[in-house]
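EI: anyone free to look at a 76-residue chain?
SC: sure, send it
EI:
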Amino acid sequence: MSQRLAVIPKPTPEQTVEDVLKDALSKAPEMEKVLVLWEGKQGSAAGSLDNGLTLSQCLYLVKLFEHWILKSALGD
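SC: here you go
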């Protein structure tokens, strides 16, 4: 099955974490599986949230993201 990656536009340096999450939330009706990763502020741990994904589904989303990031770096 071929998936098309829909990526939220790159944030500008002025955008806050809240702004980016609001942008993502506006696309929620189009989403089925969600995996959110974050890096904490100084001294705080990184973390993740998902909507009940299995390990296999999480790994699949990570691989989709890896594919997108490599494709973007190479100029599509």
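EI: The radius of gyration is 14 Å.
SC: 👍
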